[in-house]
Amino acid sequence: MTEIVELRGIRGVIAKNMVKSLENTAQLTLFAEFDAYHLVAGRQALKDGGHKIGYEDLIIYILCNAIRKHPIVNSRVDGITAQSSDGAHVAIAIATDAGLIAPVLFDADSKSVFEICEYRRDLIDRAKQAKLSTKEMTQGSFTVSNLGITRVNHFTPILNYPQVALLGLGQIMNRAWVLEDGSIAARPIMGLSLTIDHRVIDGGPGGEFLTELCSALETPVDY
Predict the structure, then answer these.
(1) What are the structural domains of the chain?
(2) pTM for the full model?
(3) Helix-strand-coil percent breakdown of the chain, rounded to 5?
(4) Per-residue pLDDT tens for 73-95?
(5) Which ranges in the chain belong to alpha helices (H)?
(6) Residues 77 and 21: beta-carbon distance below 8 Å
(7) pLDDT in tens, 111-152
(8) Among residues 28, 36, 52, 41, which one has the least CA distance to residue 116?
(9) How far apart are the C-alpha atoms of 4 and 132, rounded to whole Å?
(10) Catalytic site residues?
């Protein structure tokens, strides 16, 4: 059966923006993995307490702390200038019938994990109803794309131009992992993919940010 995809409407806008992103940036993707034991345990504890929280909510909450220490990743390009944003305005990639969009969770760094969860769900609901404002569709400073419900471990996300960084979330999969004491155990391992604009962020600082984020995600958090 032949399938035809029309590059019109929202799908056409998305296609043009992706091509514009690739044409106007020098994109480099860095890959990392981390032991998600404490992330999984933290989510389970919240669920046991009656809170329906997603991994993406927890990661965004922890991500904001890392962004505070590395403000360059939270920037937008304007001509020949890249300027960091005052707040972490995290865009979240959402698949809709019309195509992929990334509405913005404004000032995520000033919100609790519960507020992030509620805000993200509201954005998803309104995105599927085509009830988002232009500002909510365009004014993000950092993007998160989640393929964790698939069997994808790592991928090469396309930057949400004019932003300079995008974090891709892979699946959590039980694997053999070497612990700090040298023993080997089955642990829930998650893959991360960080795409950066190499014109603004060099590989070293990008790697430092991703390393610090992994370390934070491996640390117990009091939500």
Answers:
(1) 9-217 (3.30.559.10)
(2) 0.95
(3) 40, 30, 35
(4) 999 999 899 999 999 999 999 98
(5) 9-24, 37-48, 55-69, 113-128, 134-138, 203-217
(6) no
(7) 999 999 999 999 999 998 889 999 999 999 999 999 999 999
(8) 52
(9) 27
(10) 198
